[in-house]
Predict the structure.
Amino acid sequence: MRSIREGGSRNGGVRGLPLSPTLPHKAGGSAPFARKNPGSIMILFPAIDLKNGQCVRLEQGDMARATVFNLDPAAQAQSFVAQGFEYLHVVDLDGAFAGKPVNAQAVEAMLKTIRIPVQLGGGIRDLATVEAWLAKGITRVIIGTAAVRDPELVKAAAKKFPGRVAVGLDARDGKVAVEGWAETSQVTVLEIAQRFEDAGVAAIIFTDIARDGLLKGLNLDATIALADSISIPVIASGGLASIEDVKAMLTPRATKLAGAIAGRALYDGRLDPAAALNLIHDARRS
């Protein structure tokens, strides 16, 4: 699973997320975001994947193909903030396999270190875990496996915490994978996404597993097709390779997409953070 942006203050309520077509005030509420181009609100999420308390990147979700990029996830989070990113995407990989939080200490260290919104997934399988993470300062939780096996949990969480629950849908050959991608279900991404159309889910994070960590480029065709079929905002994940992917996210055909997650391309230096963020900021001003 990989499968958040004007930061609110820690004491000012929720560290807000932009839910198109609005951006949150620093104090946590939402303010209209005037824009001519519906896609100009596109958000680029730098990703931190946690394994054994370290910041890693996997290839196609395979835990045996992990590259350690930073022994200190909090320092990595600080680095992303220094680069100008306004939001952070975090996944507890061990938690995704265990079905419960495993890298809580690393996540809590990041929350103490940075003041930007943090979106977290991995091992979130019950309402108590949702509540616990939100209480600790996570801005938005991502429910993946439980979205397939226990859709009522997603609906209950989204109702109780409006705007703070996303669904992570990770696809292998069009079918949703669960349990940290170790198992493939028999249902499609669209079938799962449609279950939550009226549930108040803040976003769908769609990952193409075949591309994840391989720098092959985003699967925009499949992601845009999903976005065109549902009303929930969709975030692209898996394979973002270069500035060309960012440019593609800002074209008219991608205006329904809420953002994209960048991982290995940032760590490998293939994507210049300043250039990518400047493109997005210019689009917001247009």
About this structure: Confidence is low (pLDDT under 50) at residues 1-16, 18-40.
